[in-house]
Each structure stands twice: as structure tokens, then as C-alpha cells.
């Protein structure tokens, strides 16, 4: 080996024009290999650090709830529900749009779930029983949908709503765990949020990539049967979560805690610098009509539409989730310091303009310029999701800035429920437009007009920007004179054994 290296060095000395050293190349290659291995090990070390600092059961719970149940599971649930309504229940597009809004109602009740987990412990535990309840609710709902071929539409809607309720309860309970750990480990608060976002993004990307394949292989009812696995894991989180048991808790204080929280939220909502942004957030979402069911029926139609397969639909959704991730990255590294009003103006404008891509697709203009349907819809979905994320992120930051001290988690859940109410209004409004324009399962003559109406309404929130403060996120805060003493700390302290 040494003789071989000497010969190599001799050749290098004789051929001075060649300055590359094979030994150096080997060392550089080893360094690159080592560097790549270190990069792969970084997430492992990060997970181990979080598990060591906050107990492995918490990290396991975040991965299960945010990654497997919400990310991967919600992707299966979303795609499976669309095909279930279209192929099994055989409902019209406008009806499917309205039913989608009905089944999302549990997300509007997030403040109620948040209050229950905060002030009403069960058998001495504040979090574990709610995970178990959410998991059992989801398992029963998915089993009912998967085992009954001729399930009545009313029971099907009830089951879908129950499935969403289980997911919403688990989501709020995990948010409460993250908030509580952020208080006890303030230096790791950002890491916990990153863990939630990372788990959700990876789960959604994986779920949408394979959901269409499973719908094709086993049908939507079979997909609902598979959904019992992620919901069952939520039950496991409830049994494994490391949580101290509360002793000598008096349920007499529950009523007072509910009253204090309600009073604090109402006092805060009455402030002009709070209700005005809340009104804008609701209207900006409600006016962006949701006609996704009409677009889905058209995209899978074999006559007038592109006739996309189940696998193609799943892949399109997965690509759109990548667009959403790109939007979040753009906001984080380039746009987060801009004033709320200025940023919302441009994002809302681009959001309305991006909808015109769907108009081009439905009118088949893309084929006239030589762009295939599949390629064009991937581009349209990616741009649409990216602009939607860019529009959503400043409103999310603004919501966090509006939360009063002491009830941050519950009030943030209230703001998210206002946003969900806006999404519900958009879904029902879109269903009404599809019904008026007579867009059905097999008739899409006026779908282009529905898209045009939706795109026009997406621009109207620009006239309401006066409701949003012009200040940048770093300097905006509310003065909490009325609510600064209404802090629900007694129950938290007793749970922590303080």
C-alpha cells in the first residue's frame, strides 16, 4: 500500500500539469461521505435531544398526532372522502360541497375542546383521557364507514363528522401539551413548533403520494378501514403519555375557570384592535368561495374533463403540498418582516390571479397552446397552494399577536375557529354557486363561470384591508389592561405539582 502511494506521488511529481492528487481526492471523498452521514444523523440527534429533555412519549405523541394522524391520515381521509361521495353516495357537486362544510364543523368548536382539556381533568389527568377519547371516536367512525356498503347518507355524514371531531380533539390536546412544555422548556419552544410542522409536512407529502394508489386498489371504503390504524395510534398516545396525575382536585373550580376564560375572551374580542383583524380574517376566507368538489368531479370526468385516475389525483395533491411548503419557506426567509397590510394586499391579489389558471384549464386553452392537462394542473395546484400559504401565514402570525396573556392557547383556538367558520362559509357559498349554475355530476357547462365568480370575490377583500393594522409583526402587540389579571394558572400549577 505504501509503495503504491509512493508511485502515485512520483507520477504526480513528473506530471506537474496534473495537479489532482488521488490521495487528496480520496480524502475529500471521505470528508464528503462523512459530511453526508453527519447531515443524516442531525435529525436523529435532534429527536434524541427532544426525547431526553421532554420525555420520549411527548415526541412520540407529536409524531403520531401531527405526522401520522393529521398529516398522513388526513391525506387518506380527504382523498377517500371525495371518491366516497362521488362513487359510493353518488351526490351532486353542490351537495358534496355543502356536506364537506358540515363535516368540518368540529374544527369550529376548537375553543370548546381547548377549554375542556384545560379546566376539566378526567380521573386526575388533563390530556391522556382526551387522546383516548379522540382515538376511540375516530376508530368507531372509520369502522362504520368501511363495513357498511349501503350506509345511509345521514349516517355517513355523522361518521365523517365524528372522524373530524376525533382529529380536532387530538389536535387541540396536542397543542395544549406543546404550550405547556413551551412554558417549562422555553429554550425548546421553537424546536417543538418545528417538530410539529416537520411531522405534519412529511406525513401529508407521503399520504397524498400514496392515497390515490390505495383508493384505486381497495376503494374509498377500504381506505376508511386503513384509517383505523392512525386513529388507533392516538389511543396508544393516551396510554403512553407521561403526565403527572392531579391529586385532590376540586371540580367546584371548573365552573369558575370556565367563567374566567369566557370573560377574558369576550373582553379581548371587544377591543377594536382585535375584532377588526378578526373580521377581516373571517371575510377574506368566506369570500374566497370553495368550489373544489366541482373541480374534482370535472377533473375525474371521462367526457368533458381530463379523466384523471385515482393515482394521478393523489399525486397532484402531494405536489400541491410541496407548493404549500415552498410558500411557508418564502414567508419565513423573505417576507415575515413586512407590514401586515402591505403583505396581505399583494398575497390576496396574487391569490385571486392564480385562480385564473383553473379557468384556463377548464376552458381547455392549455391544450391549444400545447400544454398537457396533467402538467398544467400540477403547475396550477402548486402555484395556488403556494399563494394560499403566503396569504395564510401573515394571518396566522397576526392571530398569535392578538392573544391575551394567560389564555393564549384557548384564545388562539378561538381565532382558529373564526377562520374555520370562514372556510365553512366559503364551502357553503361555493355549493350555492354550483347549484345556481347547475353544475352537476355530469354537466360542467357553467363551471368556468363559477371559477370566474370565485376569482372576482377573491379580490374583494382588498377593499377591507383598512381593518388590518399597517404595522410590521415585530412591533405589533395589544395592550391587555383588562385581561392581564385573568390568568388561568391555578389548574396548570396544580397539574405540574407546584
Automatic annotation (TrEMBL):
It comes from the Eukaryota. Keywords: Membrane, Transmembrane, Transmembrane helix, Transport. The keyword 4Fe-4S does not apply. InterPro entries: BT1, MFS_trans_sf. The chain crosses the membrane at residues 56-77, 98-116, 128-147, 195-215, 221-241, 279-300, 312-331, 343-365. It is found in: Membrane. The keyword Repressor does not apply. It is a multi-pass membrane protein. GO terms for cellular component: membrane. PANTHER family: FOLATE-BIOPTERIN TRANSPORTER 1, CHLOROPLASTIC (PTHR31585), FOLATE-BIOPTERIN TRANSPORTER 2-RELATED (PTHR31585:SF6). Belongs to the major facilitator superfamily. Folate-biopterin transporter (TC 2.A.71) family. This is Folate-biopterin transporter 2. It comes from Crotalaria pallida.
